[in-house]
């Protein structure tokens, strides 16, 4: 119990702010599982400790506080999603390319655009982990506090032209997220001919692997929503529009 | 509206209602006769695909690392949804009276039947998985199974290592398996809903590594979930039965 509490306090320290109190009072399942429980001690330590692999890729800081997307995306989900899942992709990517120094100068985007050129023994690891790194780096940026609402700027007009209306686009995008069986992403992409499309990819595959430019994507891995929405992916998909940062999406669209 | 016209109107309304009721009754009768005929022609196999009961209480594995809440969602929502979806998808199709195994085999790798495959295989996988767990499980297998594991993997520890590795490295959602492949024991992993039934292999043991299987109890720590499964949950008697039946 002492150990468990120490880990817990360590976590709270890392997260800072009023996170700890919220965590204790929260009804979410994870908070309950962090309450003193001898069963969970080894688990907590596994969860918290991850040896960092040095390399050219690094975890970008979350551009807002862990609790900034409440109540639509909960603090604990953001904490684990960014600090553990995304960190693991970065770590694994650094580990994968460690024995090929010639790859250290490449961007993650360059790596996934031409997977076939990579040494075969690291191709799958790069596909999964560079993909995960790129997708999550985009994901944090295209969300934000005090966001949501209707798209603004050029992207708004492009969505209307391509999909009829924002409502129709949203429906199509949510459908892509709902029908992505297993783990994956729903996307708005620009294809080689400049056309906007709604697509889905499995696991951490990036649209860049199909010659498409990702404009915006929503993570439908269960780790993105399970603590708050459990099996109700559709509820998560609907709530997610409240945290969508159209300014950033418009910026991505105009430079795509 | 003048009072005097009401009785006539009421009478007309009544007749209309009676005529409607008669129609509904006839439709009902016709449907019921059709259903009877249908049931008879299909023999006794008129049940939809059923969700078998969980072989222990929701809270039975709490002392062994898995909360009742996990089973409330995993059995009560996820598994149930696969059963319900499957029954909707096969209703009024030629598959409606097929066995679950036949549905899995017939829909595997058929793009037009992807929904049927995903739901049928996930129904089978979960029904099988619940039996792979038991309170105070884990430990070591015995008898013929133990001997076969030793001969296939070198030792029980080597088997655990190989199984853990498969479960850890199944990227995204999926399953890790111990299978009997034409007499040879093997460890495999499958993505999403895919399973040994689809591949014509005999499943002996499985672990669900979809995030929903462990997120409530272990969050992102899949390796801790795998270790806990091997240490204190595996129902080796069930695995032995599967091998004996292979």
Could you please describe the fold and organization of this structure?
The complex is a heterodimer of chains A (256) and B (246). Chain A is mainly alpha-helical and 256 residues long. Helices cover 52% and strands 8% of the residues of chain A. Chain A contains twelve helices and three strands. In chain A, strand 1 and strand 2 form a beta hairpin. In chain A, helix 1 runs parallel beside helix 4 (41-48) and helix 5 packs antiparallel against helix 7 (120-141). The longest helix of chain A has 23 residues, at 75-97. Chain A is globular, with a radius of gyration of 19 Å. Chain A starts with a helix and ends with a helix. With 246 residues, chain B is mainly alpha-helical. Chain B has three domains: 8-50, no CATH class; 67-130, Helix Hairpins, CATH 1.10.287.990; 143-244, Iron/manganese superoxide dismutase, C-terminal domain (minor pseudopilin epsh fold, 3-Layer(bab) Sandwich), CATH 3.55.40. Chain B is built from nine helices and three strands; from the N terminus they run ααααααβββααα. In chain B, strands 2-1-3 form a three-stranded antiparallel β-sheet. In chain B, helix 2 packs antiparallel against helix 4, helix 2 packs antiparallel against helix 7 (211-218) and helix 6 (156-169) packs antiparallel against helix 8 (222-232). The longest helix of chain B is centred in the first third of the chain and has 36 residues, at 6-41. Mean pLDDT of chain B is 88; it is low at 1-8 and 35-45. Chains A and B meet through helix 3, helix 4 and helix 5 of A and helix 2, helix 7 and helix 8 of B.
């Amino acid at each position: 119990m002492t150990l468990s509490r120490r880990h817990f306090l360590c976590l709270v320290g890392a997260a800072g702010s009023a996170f700890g109190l919220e965590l204790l009072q929260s009804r979410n399942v994870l908070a309950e599982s962090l309450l003193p429980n001898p069963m969970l001690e080894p688990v907590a330590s596994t969860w918290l400790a991850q040896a960092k692999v040095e390399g050219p890729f690094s975890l970008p800081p979350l551009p807002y506080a862990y609790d900034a997307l409440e109540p639509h995306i909960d603090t604990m989900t953001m904490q684990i999603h960014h600090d553990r899942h995304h960190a693991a992709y970065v770590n694994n990517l650094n580990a994968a390319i460690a024995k090929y120094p010639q790859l250290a100068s490449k961007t993650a985007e360059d790596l996934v655009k031409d997977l076939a050129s990579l040494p075969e023994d690291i191709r799958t690891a790069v596909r999964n982990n560079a993909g995960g790194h790129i997708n999550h780096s985009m994901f944090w940026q295209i969300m934000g506090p005090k966001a949501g609402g209707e798209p603004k700027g050029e992207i708004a007009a492009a969505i209307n032209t391509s999909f009829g209306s924002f409502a129709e686009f949203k429906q199509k995008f949510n459908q892509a997220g709902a029908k992505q069986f297993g783990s994956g992403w729903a996307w708005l992409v620009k294809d080689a001919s400049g056309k906007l499309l709604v697509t889905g990819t499995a696991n951490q595959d990036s649209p860049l692997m199909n010659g498409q430019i990702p404009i915006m994507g929503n993570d439908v891995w269960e780790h993105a929503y399970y603590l708050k929405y459990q099996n109700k992916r559709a509820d998560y998909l609907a709530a997610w529009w409240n945290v969508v940062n159209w300014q950033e999406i418009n910026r991505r669209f105009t430079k795509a | 509206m003048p009072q005097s016209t009401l009785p006539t109107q009421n009478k007309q309304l009544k007749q209309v209602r009676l005529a409607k009721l008669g129609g509904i009754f006839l439709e009902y009768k016709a449907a019921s006769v059709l259903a009877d005929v249908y049931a008879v022609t299909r023999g006794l196999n008129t049940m939809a695909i059923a969700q078998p009961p969980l072989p222990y209480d929701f809270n039975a594995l709490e002392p062994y690392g898995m909360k009742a809440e996990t089973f409330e969602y995993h059995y009560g929502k996820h598994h149930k949804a696969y059963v319900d979806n499957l029954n909707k998808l096969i209703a009024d199709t030629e598959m409606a009276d097929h066995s679950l195994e036949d549905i899995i085999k017939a829909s595997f790798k058929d793009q037009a039947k992807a929904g049927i495959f995903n739901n049928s295989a996930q129904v089978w996988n979960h029904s099988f998985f619940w039996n792979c767990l038991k309170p105070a499980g884990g430990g070591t297998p015995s008898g013929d199974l133990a001997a076969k594991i030793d001969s296939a993997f070198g030792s029980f520890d080597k088997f655990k290592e190989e199984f853990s590795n498969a479960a850890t490295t199944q990227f995204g959602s999926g399953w890790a398996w111990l299978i009997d492949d034409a007499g040879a024991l093997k460890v495999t992993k499958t993505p999403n809903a895919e399973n040994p039934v689809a591949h014509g292999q005999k499943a002996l043991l499985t672990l669900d590594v979809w995030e929903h299987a462990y997120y409530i109890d272990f969050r992102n720590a899949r390796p801790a979930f795998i270790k806990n499964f091997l240490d204190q949950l595996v129902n080796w008697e069930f695995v032995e039965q599967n091998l004996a039946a292979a």
